[in-house]
Design a protein that fits this description.
Number of helices of chain A: 12
Number of strands of chain A: 10
Radius of gyration of chain B: 19 Å
Number of helices of chain B: 11
Number of strands of chain B: 13
Oligomer: heterodimer
Distance between the termini of chain B: 15 Å
Order of helices and strands of chain B: EEEHHEHHHEHEHEEEHEHEHHEE
Helix content of chain A: 25-40%
Radius of gyration of chain A: 20 Å
Strand content of chain B: 15-25%
Strand order of the largest sheet of chain A: 3-2-4-5-1-6-10-9-7-8
Largest sheet of chain B: 11 strands, mixed
CATH topology of the largest domain in chain B: Peroxisomal Thiolase, Chain A, domain 1
CATH class of the largest domain in chain A: Alpha Beta
CATH superfamily of the largest domain in chain B: Thiolase/Chalcone synthase
Chain lengths: 398, 349
């Protein structure tokens, strides 16, 4: 018999807010975070809008109480982890605690600033700018700062990374290997990722329109999102209150193309279907789908078709929150896990911003106005990425 | 959960496991880095695709295909990969062009292949594997966590065959950074230098080692991963205490130990203290004179052992540190990379 993993707290920072309350407020008041890059210095700042956290590295380091020389991803991670962890930090004595993070850029924001000098003469570069380049170094910085060391890992599966870190945390609590876990991910904007996505020609030059027939692509965002998971035993010891449980999870591969989804969303279907099986639910049980919904022609079409294949003509309420936060890459699964738990806790479904025109190849319409006062029992959250990685999580009221 | 290895594929600085003479001869070199001796990939990768692959992808796909062939399967049910650094060469290629060309006129190929999950994704793509697929990037525990994930997956989905591997590539840029970090050094090393410990840092390495593992005990002789214990600690005294506690709990069962001694002065002291202490009456073997030091080198060590078991051979004599083991049954593998330690309890079944 597996132990349930309960969500007892959340921590988040995105372009729409520096904590859970601020992000919820922005979602309730349809305030988007997409705009011109200010902190990211790039050739493309006038042409490619992004969803940037409106804080300098120094401001973030002060908020988190850490070294200003940390990579921006580590700073975002530390702020979100602090929010989720701090109320319970002195209550977990004797409990086994893990930290499951995710990132795709690691310390690239610092590396890219010194790489030219490094290639010319590596000894001319301050080692602090490259020593935390590795993805795992970001997690290590944050884990050490908060003194979490029973199990510390980092997953990097592109845009599905933090859905997978939550999945693994739930499995390890389920098997009794851990009592407490902070799980999610973080990614900062960097010139490397912005230019990479730009070469793929999937960036929208305007604020994105997920699941709209005339969608033009995605906007990159930055942020961090974590859920604090506990076993029943840990909840009792910490006197915590559960908002929901992570009832289902699945990871599948699309095995179609390194960066594109298969037209019928093979991997998406497998991930959603298997997550429902693990949760022991039928499609009809799902009240809300937090879509991957990046706003690219390819993703939204594949995801939409996979949803129709699974839910037939009974597609539940669905919306993408990436029109608010941008696509926060490795943080997206964590950010949207926070939004999913808030949906259950407050009985709300977020509007899919800027939606105008029905997609031709997908029959269902996303939710376009804020829905409140609902009894949301089960939320399905999708995260799909490069490398064919497809993951789905199910959150259930408890 | 106990995992049984039914297939192994290795591409390393000491050659590759599809070669019948793999590891038979003692290595000879005098260099600062051990780069992979790559196989002829014709049997594994279509030439059109091979041309576009960076070294990380080539050695990863090559080792995984070798591994599947050795297990006699076409595709695994699921994939779990550990890589501390990911696809460095493509990352540096895109980064370099982005800076030189001031973010303009860039092409996507290197960016596409730069993501950390490129190898696991490409394996799935080439094999048509729709199953669970994860990539771990936790520095010196990347491979260990890929193995732990395999245990979690097989606990949920028993009686399946999972591909698990560790891969890291070395580039000129990463070697410069690793030297600045004191992990590798600027000197040339010979195979004997993994023992001397006179300098900070050691010879750099790279490689890809993949395994087919299952939770079902196979009919044939196989290496079983009984337990993986990991910890990270920057304090050497605490690290030695933790290693000693683990060894004490397992010492009475083991026939020999395999040590990740690398030649670095500080970590050599740690191994020296174990070798002259708790392990003094235990046959001791080494492996980093073959593969060099890299974050997923523990995968090479497990591969070297699994390869010997599958071939019904003892470990080569050039791996013996003090004396030869009488039997190959219960094995304790102890590795470190920086302050990341792992202890592996292995058994030939």
């Amino acid at each position: 018999m597996k132990q349930a993993a309960y969500i007892v707290n959340t921590g988040i920072i995105t372009a729409i807010g520096n904590d859970t309350a601020a992000c919820l407020d922005a979602l309730l008041h349809t305030k988007s975070g997409i705009g011109k890059a200010y902190h990211l210095k790039t050739h493309w700042s006038d042409e490619l809008p992004v969803a940037e956290v409106n804080l300098s590295n120094e401001e973030m380091a002060n908020m988190a109480g850490v070294d200003t020389r940390w990579p921006r991803t580590a700073l975002l991670s530390a702020i979100a982890v602090k929010e989720a962890w701090q109320p319970f930090a002195d209550k977990v004595k004797g409990l086994k605690t893990g930290f499951f993070s995710a990132t795709t850029v690691g310390g690239m924001d610092l590396t890219e600033n010194v790489y030219k000098a490094f290639k010319e003469d590596s000894t001319s570069v301050d080692f602090n700018n490259i020593k935390n380049h590795e993805c795992g170094a970001i997690t290590e910085l944050v884990a050490n700062h908060f003194g979490i060391n029973d199990f510390v890992t980092t997953i990097s599966t592109a845009c599905s990374s933090s859905a997978n870190s939550i999945m693994m945390a739930v499995q390890m609590i389920g098997n009794g290997m851990l009592d407490v876990a902070i799980a999610g991910g973080a990614d900062s904007l960097s010139r490397f990722t912005l230019n990479g996505f730009n070469t793929l020609m999937i960036l929208d030059k305007q604020p994105c329109q997920p699941f709209d027939n005339n969608r033009r692509g995605l906007n990159l965002g930055e942020g961090a999102g974590y859920v604090l998971l506990m076993s029943e035993k840990a909840i009792q010891q910490c006197r915590a209150t559960a908002s929901c449980i992570v009832s289902g999870y699945a990871n599948a591969n699309d095995a179609y193309h390194q960066t594109a989804s298969s037209p019928d969303g093979t991997g998406n279907k497998l991930a959603m279907g298997n997550a429902l099986k693990v949760a022991n639910l039928q499609p009809i049980d799902i009240d809300y789908i937090n879509l991957h919904g990046t706003g690219t022609a390819n993703n939204d079409s594949s995801e939409g078709k996979a949803i129709e294949a699974l839910f037939a003509d009974k597609v539940p309420m669905a919306s993408s929150t990436k029109a608010y936060t941008g696509h926060t890459l490795a943080a997206a699964g964590g950010v949207e896990a926070v939004f999913s738990s808030l949906s259950i806790m407050h009985g709300i479904v977020y509007p899919n911003l800027r939606w105008e025109t029905q997609m031709e190849d997908v029959g269902f319409k996303p939710v376009t106005t804020l829905q409140q006062g609902l009894a949301i029992r089960h939320v399905l959250s999708n995260s799909f990425g490069f490398g064919g990685n497809c993951s789905s999580l199910v959150f259930s009221k408890c | 959960m106990e995992l049984y290895i039914t297939g192994t594929g290795i591409v390393s600085g000491a050659g590759n496991s599809s070669d019948d003479n793999f590891l038979k001869e003692p290595p000879t070199y005098n260099t600062g880095k051990l780069l992979c001796v790559e196989p002829n990939y014709t049997a594994y990768i279509p030439p059109m695709q091979l041309r576009r692959m960076s070294k990380a992808v080539r050695i990863g796909i090559g080792a995984s295909k070798m591994c599947m062939a050795s297990a006699g399967i076409e595709k695994p049910d699921a994939i779990s990969v550990g890589t501390a650094m990911g696809c460095l060469a493509d990352t540096e290629l895109f980064l370099g062009k982005m800076i030189v060309q001031d973010e303009q006129m860039l092409t996507p190929t290197a960016f596409i292949q730069s993501t950390h999950n490129t190898v696991s994704g490409q394996i799935a793509l080439l094999a048509g594997c729709y199953g669970h697929n994860l990539t771990f990037v936790q520095r010196g525990h990347s491979f260990e966590h890929a193995v732990m994930n395999t245990q979690l997956y097989l606990a949920d989905n028993p009686h399946q065959q999972m591909l698990v591997g560790g891969i890291d590539e070395l580039t000129d840029g990463s070697l410069d950074a690793l030297k600045m970090g004191g992990i590798n050094n600027k000197l040339n090393s010979t195979p004997a230098d993994v023992l001397n410990g006179n300098n900070t840092g050691c010879i750099a390495g790279e490689g890809a080692s993949f395994f087919i593992v299952t939770d079902d005990k196979p009919a044939n002789r196989a290496l079983c991963i009984k337990e993986v214990y990991c910890f990270a600690d920057k304090n050497n005294t605490i690290a030695i205490n933790k290693l000693e506690a683990y060894i004490t709990n397992h010492l009475q069962d083991i026939d020999f130990t395999v040590l990740g001694q690398s030649g670095d002065a500080i970590s050599n002291l740690t191994y020296q203290s174990l070798r002259s202490g708790l392990l003094k009456d235990t046959p001791q073997y080494i492996f980093k004179h073959l593969c060099g030091e890299y974050a997923t080198a523990s995968a090479f060590a497990v591969g070297m052992l699994a390869n010997s078991v599958l071939r019904n051979e003892m470990l080569p004599t050039h791996c013996i540190l003090n004396r030869e083991a009488g039997e190959m049954k219960n094995i304790l593998l102890i590795n470190h990379y920086m302050h990341y330690y792992s202890c592996w309890s292995l058994q030939v079944v």
